[in-house]
Write a structure and sequence with these properties.
The structure holds two protein chains of two kinds. Chain A is 45% helix and 18% strand. Chain A is of the alpha/beta class. In chain A, strand 1, helix 4 and strand 2 form a beta-alpha-beta unit. In chain A, helix 3 packs across helix 12, helix 5 runs parallel beside helix 6 and helix 8 packs across helix 15. Chain A is elongated and about 60 Å long. In chain B, strands 1-2 form a two-stranded antiparallel sheet. The two termini of chain B are 36 Å apart. Chain B contains 26 helices and two strands. Chain B is an all-alpha fold. The chains are: A alpha/beta, B mainly alpha. At the A-B interface, helix 1, helix 4, strand 2, helix 5 and helix 6 of A face helix 2, helix 6, helix 13, helix 20 and helix 25 of B.
């Protein structure tokens, strides 16, 4: 009798759980266009301010933003940079910044989940290109206009988001293992058998892969040639997960050359005195934009827009000081004369899965990649 | 009280009695509450996972299985995974059991070292432990290889092989087995072994024929958890396997979740595969342990666990322990300590030692949120460990002792979260609590729920294993003497279960400090935890600061666990 009651209660509990979760519809389906039809309250603020410029715009934004008092920022900047940026913003204005920080995929997942439930957790998102593209595709990012945005090079202005900085992919090497003058001078040189067992590649750099592939294709190389180049590069290569581990192991001498690390990671190790270098650049340098988007559902739209303006003006100098490559170049360009090609973000988003699989094949034992 | 004594029916009171029969007893409330909580915690992510696996925008689909398992090298992947998982499970089982046996049942020297040896590998974050081993045993830069080079030639050890992976994973996992087996050995009546010895059996025969069979439920539990854990483990295969192209099956979960939109169907298909293995494992473990009385060593007959004298083996075992302690604790910890004093990692040299400073520790002190994170992690660790072990003690009673139909379901449900990837758990929880009227999302309690879900399986194994050892005659005598179910549970069972519950409590406390994959999605500004800080230092490329943080964490938890252990030693079975 008692046991039957217990069982019944258990079954009822389970049924209730299922019913409650089922009410929300399919939990894994993406909710598109959560904002519905007309412009949101935040969008109205963005449009109103977009007409203003210069001091007038800044004054108006500061007045409104300080009235709002708070800014909720979701970002995938590393915490040291995020701390500097949010600290400087709070020093400049009477606005509290709440920072949620995680890897770019996690930031994306969090926003998708929250927006799907009409929970408006953030005003601004600052993250990688791929994730910003995805958010824009979901219709969650608002239009951002202004003179600072117009100063960003064309390769950094997208629908719904604006580049704030670039991550540069370039080969780097251990200066103890590779004497001056012996370092690779072109991407093709990485395929040299002398690097077998000494070169490291990262397991997930398919954005770098697809861009270099496209570049070589434009140079007139055939698919078969390019596949062979990558296969030769991967032959005997040491595959590592994570750019930071890769940088650390390069300093320690676990391998001599890294194909596609971020230049800023190497730069920081170099500043600490580690025997590593990436200069002179192997060209073309491949640049992946990171940027910022304003949320359509922002609870603090003026603070969001102020942050965007500020990050593209005062913030750019801060980013440069932290060793990053800012999107807007004013005055002396440290990358003057260096050929830079942006990552093909469109291909990344539309055929990312396919390129990811192809790259996985390249790095898994250097087999010849099958024809497309 | 459920077994009410036959009362003499008084006509006037019959109506009240009938009414009272429908009032829930404490036993009913507690058991239903615990079973309901387990069902709820397990079903939320399971439902999400299953939905994501079998349904896409167009309806029912099995495409995820194709994408997950349809790789031309799937055979190789499975072979690598099994070899790695079974190897690591076997290594951790042998090492953990041997250490636990020596510690509890013999007069081996250096017992104080055991405690450190059993806990410290657990505390060091997986990524740091693995990297420490790269610095120790890489053929190119490994310190051990450099030391042995004059004798054996270059590159004697290679950590970037399946064997190397088994070594690192097995050592990192062995504390789980150690804690589980210590609890088991502590509740074992040595008289059985002594009788065998009297009858002329050798020590080895006694161990094989008496000790091992008696601890079968614990061994099965250990094998089960270890195998599933190694099948799922990511850090070791990612850092050690990839370098030479050794792919294991579960690295694929990482690949399929990395893309946008994350391929939940493929990740779910992989997790379902693990789920089947785990379910079969739980069922087998129940059948094996079913033979009822044969494992009950804590009976109505009083006993005193007494240490066995090792005789001339004592120095041998003593040195074995020192070697083990050196390998699992001292060497990796020294590498961390050494790295934490440098500006960047470099092999030891005069210049390296000259450049040493406490700069990384200074940075640590100035880390924003370090104090908040420590406080939050402490709260979450202690709360999760206490809640889980309390609930699992009841759950273990339901599964092992009660005759409630469907009790096996409780066991199965409690095991489910072990196979659910952390990210999927995070997604499922945020999905539910973003829509819940109770404002849990954005508070620290959503992390508490996540942690309780993730660590339930371990708590359950610890509790069930201990429950199998306690004979029902003790409860029966308590009930005969008029104790209620709750009194019996509290005054008889809980103290007897204490060694197992304490071991589980320590384990959960320690590992909850490391939980990252669901924390990172669910935390909110102000609710940061230590593992997130570690992840950030890792992302910043601050390995030296990270090592300093690792050293500080080891010290904090060692103090904490020692206090817990000392307090815990006051309850439960007394030893000589």
């Amino acid at each position: 009798m008692k046991t039957a009651t217990a069982l019944r209660a258990l079954v009822a509990g389970i049924a209730l759980t299922l019913a409650v979760s089922a009410c929300g519809g399919s939990p894994t389906a993406n909710n598109q266009n959560t904002t519905g039809g007309g412009p949101t309250a935040a969008e109205k603020v963005y449009t109103e301010i977009a007409g203003l410029s210069g001091k007038q715009r800044r004054d108006k934004l500061v007045e409104l933003a300080e009235k709002e008092g708070t800014l909720d920022l979701y970002t995938s900047m590393t915490s040291d940079v995020a701390d500097v940026v949010s600290g400087a913003f709070m020093d400049a204005f009477k606005v509290d910044v709440n920072v949620y920080r995680a890897g770019s995929e996690t930031v994306l997942q969090r926003i998708l989940q929250e927006q799907g439930a009409r929970f408006h957790g953030n005003d601004v998102v600052e993250t990688n290109a791929t994730e910003l593209f995805a958010l824009n595709k979901e219709g969650m990012l608002a239009k951002y206009e202004g003179e600072r945005r117009n100063m960003v090079p064309e390769a950094g202005r997208f629908d719904g988001w604006t580049a704030t900085r670039f991550n540069l992919f370039a080969p780097s090497w251990n200066t103890k293992a590779v004497p001056a003058g012996q370092q690779p001078k072109s991407w093709e040189e990485l395929t040299d058998p002398k690097w077998d067992g000494k070169l490291s590649m990262e397991v997930a750099d398919y954005d770098w892969y697809l861009t270099l592939y496209g570049y070589w294709k434009k140079q007139g190389k055939s698919d078969a040639d390019i596949d062979k180049l990558f296969a030769d590069m991967a032959k005997g290569a040491k595959i590592v997960k994570g750019h930071t581990v890769q940088g650390e192991l390069l300093s320690a001498g676990q391998f001599s050359v890294v194909a596609s690390n971020y230049s800023y990671i190497v730069e920081r190790a170099k500043l600490k005195g580690a025997p590593v270098d990436y200069l002179p650049f192997v060209q073309p340098v491949i640049a992946r934009p990171n940027g910022l988007g304003l949320m359509k559902t922002a609870k603090h739209p003026a603070a969001a827009m102020l942050f965007a303006d500020w990050l593209l003006e005062e913030g750019q100098k801060l980013l440069a000081k932290e060793g990053l490559t800012p999107a807007i170049v004013e005055g002396n360009d440290p990358l003057k004369g260096v050929q830079i090609i942006p990552v093909d973000v469109k291909a990344l988003l539309e055929q990312g899965g396919e390129w990811s699989k192809r790259y996985e094949k390249v790095v898994s034992g250097g087999e010849q990649v099958a024809d497309k | 009280m459920t077994t009410a004594s036959p009362a003499v029916p008084a006509t006037g009171a019959t109506a009240t009695k009938r009414w009272r029969r429908w009032l829930p007893t404490p036993k009913l409330i507690i058991t239903v509450g615990v079973a309901g909580a387990i069902g709820y915690l397990a079903l939320v992510p399971l439902y999400y996972l299953i939905w994501g696996t079998f349904f896409d925008a167009k309806g029912f689909s099995l495409g995820g299985f194709g994408r997950a398992y349809g790789d031309e090298r799937v055979g190789e992947l499975i072979a690598n995974s099994l070899w790695f998982a079974i190897g690591a499970a076997a290594l951790s089982l042998v090492v953990g059991t041997a250490l636990a046996y020596l510690n509890v049942r013999t007069d081996v020297p250096f017992k104080a070292l055991f405690f450190a040896a059993s806990i410290i590998p657990l505390i060091i974050p997986g990524i740091l432990y693995t990297i420490a081993w790269i610095f120790l045993a890489s053929p190119e830069i490994g310190l051990i290889n450099k030391v042995l080079e004059p004798i054996f030639g270059p590159g004697l050890f290679d950590v970037f092989t399946v064997r190397g992976m088994i070594w690192v994973e097995g050592l990192h996992l062995s504390p789980i087995v150690f804690l589980l087996m210590v609890a088991t050995f502590r509740s074992m009546d040595p008289s059985l072994e002594e009788s065998a010895l009297m009858c002329g059996a050798s020590r080895w025969q006694v161990f094989r024929k008496i000790t091992v069979p008696l601890t079968r439920p614990a061994i099965v539990a250990a094998v089960l958890i270890m195998t599933v854990r190694s099948l799922e483990s990511f850090e070791v295969p990612a850092l050690l396997g990839l370098q030479n192209g050794i792919y294991v099956f579960t690295s694929r979960i990482y690949f399929v979740l990395r893309t946008y939109p994350p391929d939940l169907a493929a990740a779910g298909s992989l997790a379902s595969g693990l789920l089947v293995i785990a379910m079969v494992g739980v069922a087998i473990s129940n059948i094996v342990s079913r033979s009822g009385k044969s494992f009950q060593t804590v009976t109505g007959k009083g006993f005193r666990p007494r240490a066995m004298e090792l005789g001339r083996w004592r120095p041998v075992m003593g040195s074995a322990i020192v070697v083990y302690f050196f390998l699992t604790v001292v060497a990796p910890l020294l590498v961390l300590l050494y790295t934490s004093l440098l500006r960047f990692y470099q092999p030891p040299s005069v210049a390296a030692f000259k450049s040493m400073s406490l700069e990384n520790y200074r940075q640590l002190v100035h880390l924003s949120q370090a104090a908040t994170a420590l406080k939050n992690s402490l709260f979450l660790g202690v709360a999760t460990a206490t809640l889980v072990m309390a609930a699992m003690a009841i759950a273990a009673w339901i599964v092992v002792r009660s005759r409630i139909p469907g009790r096996q379901l409780v066991d199965q449900f409690a095991f489910v979260p072990l196979v659910i990837p952390g990210l999927v758990l995070g997604l499922a929880l945020s999905f539910v609590y973003l829509r819940s009227p109770v404002p849990i999302y954005g508070t620290i309690f959503i992390l508490l729920i996540a942690y309780c879900t993730r660590y339930m399986p371990y708590g359950m194994r610890y509790a069930v294993t201990s429950m199998h050892q306690i004979a029902s005659e003790l409860e029966e005598s308590a009930q005969v003497s008029g104790a209620s179910w709750w009194q019996t549970f509290r005054r008889v069972l809980l103290p007897l279960l204490a060694p197992g519950l304490l071991a589980g409590w320590i384990y959960i406390l320690v590992v909850s400090f490391r939980e990252l994959s669901s924390s990172i999605l669910l935390y909110s500004p102000g609710n940061e935890v230590l593992s997130i800080l570690i992840f950030e230092q890792y992302e910043n490329g601050q390995f030296t600061v990270l090592s300093a943080l690792g050293v500080v964490m080891v010290l904090t938890l060692v103090v904490l666990v020692t206090v817990g252990y000392k307090l815990g030693a006051k309850v439960g079975l007394r030893q000589d």
